Design the sequence.
């Protein structure tokens, strides 16, 4: 098992950040390699819900194991390459939201792959996905001056 941590600040309120984070229709916009989301059961922002994230032909069943809108989301995910848990907090900070994400991988292959995704800030890396998410939410957010 290995643990990886990433964090960023988003210039948007926690409610908007949480709602966008838990919108499976937007996953393809910020999670590298996602081609679709299927098998949705329940609301992805609530504990007990589940869905399958597809990376081409590879399925990654996901379950929400804890949720407290708009502050916290914990999920389990997994396929042959990468499996484990993601724990995300959304904390109000200076007119926006601090996102802190912790990945815990399970198994040898997941630890090696997780290390690759934890290195750098390229599009498919943990940091790259978080920064792509930040930019997407900020682009969607109305400016304080109404413009």
Sequence:
């Amino acid at each position: 098992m290995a643990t990886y941590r990433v964090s960023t600040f988003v210039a948007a309120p926690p409610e908007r950040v949480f709602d966008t984070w838990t919108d499976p229709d937007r996953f393809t916009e910020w999670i590298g390699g996602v081609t679709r989301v299927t098998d949705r059961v329940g609301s992805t922002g609530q504990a007990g819900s589940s869905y399958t994230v597809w990376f081409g032909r590879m399925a990654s069943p996901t379950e929400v194991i804890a949720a407290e809108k708009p502050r916290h989301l914990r999920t389990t995910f997994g396929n042959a390459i990468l499996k484990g848990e993601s724990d995300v907090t959304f904390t109000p900070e200076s007119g926006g939201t601090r996102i802190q994400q912790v990945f815990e991988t399970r198994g040898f292959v997941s630890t090696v792959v997780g290390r690759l995704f934890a290195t750098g800030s390229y599009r498919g890396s943990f940091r790259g996905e978080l920064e792509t998410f930040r930019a997407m939410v900020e682009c969607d957010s109305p400016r304080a001056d109404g413009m």
User: Anything to note?
Assistant: The first strand starts at residue 2 and ends at 10.
